[in-house]
Amino acid sequence: MVTYLEFEKELAEIESKVDEMREASHQKDGLDLGSQFKTLDTKAKNLLKNLYENLSPWQKCQVARHPERPHCQDYLKALFEEYVPLSGDRNFADDHAVMGGLARFGEHSLIVIGHEKGHDTKTRIERNFGMARPEGYRKAIRLMDLANRFKLPVVTLIDTPGAYPGKGAEERGQSEAIARSTQKCLEIGVPLISVIIGEGGSGGAVAFATADKVLMLEHSVYSVISPEGCASILWKDPEKMREAAIALKLTAQDLKKLGVCDTIIPEPSGGAQRNKSKTIEAVGLSINEALKDLDGQISDNLIKSRRQKYLNMGTAGLAA
Question: How is the chain split into domains, by residue range?
Fold first, then answer.
């Protein structure tokens, strides 16, 4: 059963009628609803296409947060073989919001790290809705160090509203852990590829996505703060999130123009949630292309070009 978003109300009504007609034709032999069914079905498909070709930035935020989009676990199962999870930060605890370990991707042995939001109430609470604590970032640092030691590429899958803002996380050095994870991204001499598969929220995303290649799904978002948070600060009104979403330039299309995103990965009509397998396949192909582009580069050159990439972003913005 499809979960419809706020802007899909008209589509929900039409597809509901299509389903009712399909059920009626199955229950009553000889009932001919062919022409009516075809008309409504075509109308639904056209409306779906038009909706997703003209999404506003706020609507893209809603799609990026859709609970039925494929999550980190889905990508791990479908794209990576021989996945061996590595747990804990060797200091305090294991953060279940961050998954990571050794895996094979085609002919490549690599380290994969990702945010996991969970798929139902129980797992969302267990995974803390994808909001990592300091130990999650320290686990990522440990895994990146491991990758650097054994010359393994790193792939990160980003899907988080942001770092966990709780009192305990702040007491254990949340900001320091995020900063050191970002620093580690800039230090490792192996290819680092990041894929924004849903939300890329604040420093919680940057800590994993300061990469050689940043890939974004077509309807994913990546920003310094959520639209609601931005609206609360600038206008003292979280209901102005639509204006904030436009101002933040958080869509994949905007970020490609700004040079933050390197590649936009197309999603199926209606978003990743309507065809998970096709979305995951497209992500796999893009990761493979990125690995080919970076394969064989000298460690010092990788580090230098990665750092220069992020230094250039500020100057490019001023020039524009």
Answer: 6-54, 61-319
Which CATH homologous superfamily contains domain 61-319?
Answer: 2-enoyl-CoA Hydratase; Chain A, domain 1 (3.90.226.10)
Q: What is the pLDDT of residues 235-268, one digit of tens each?
A: 999 889 999 999 999 999 999 999 899 999 999 9
**DSSP letter for each residue of 94-163:** --TTEEEEEEEETTEEEEEEEE---SSHHHHHHTGGG---HHHHHHHHHHHHHHHHTT--EEEEEEES-S
Q: What sign has the CA pseudo-torsion 109, 114, 119, 120?
A: positive
pLDDT value at 319 more than 60: no
Q: What is the distance between the alpha carbons of residues 116 and 77, in angstroms, rounded to a whole number? A: 13
Give percent of the chain with pLDDT exceeding 90: 78
Contact between 296 and 151 (Cβ < 8 Å): no
Structure-token match 């899958």, residue found: 157
Type of residue found at 310: Y
Taking the CA atoms of residue 271, residue 273, residue 277 and residue 282 in that order, the dihedral angle to the nearest 10 degrees is 30
DSSP E strand stretches across 218-258: 221-223
How far apart (Å, rounded) are the C-alpha atoms in residues 215 and 193? 8
Give the C-alpha separation, 126 to 129, whole Å.
Answer: 8
